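Thread: quick sanity check before group meeting

JM: Hey all, I'm pulling together slides for Thursday and realized we never actually wrote out the predicted structure for the chain we discussed last week. Dropping the sequence here so it's in one place. If anyone has concerns about the input, flag it before I start.
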Amino acid sequence: MTGKHLNLGILAHAGAGKTTLTERLLYESGAIASIGSVDAGTTQTDTLT
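JM (edit): ok, ran it. Output follows.
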């Protein structure tokens, strides 16, 4: 295997900050360029595109 991968599951009740945490983890790992906002509807993980 040439790279390292991590599969991570985040489980919590609605409104607990799962999407916010996921955005932060993706940003810190370099997978996304900017952190989106749940309230603004700009998160990478809540879009179908």
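AS: nice. Residues 18-29 form the longest helix (12 residues). The CA atoms of residues 6 and 29 lie 11 Å apart.
JM: adding both to the slides.
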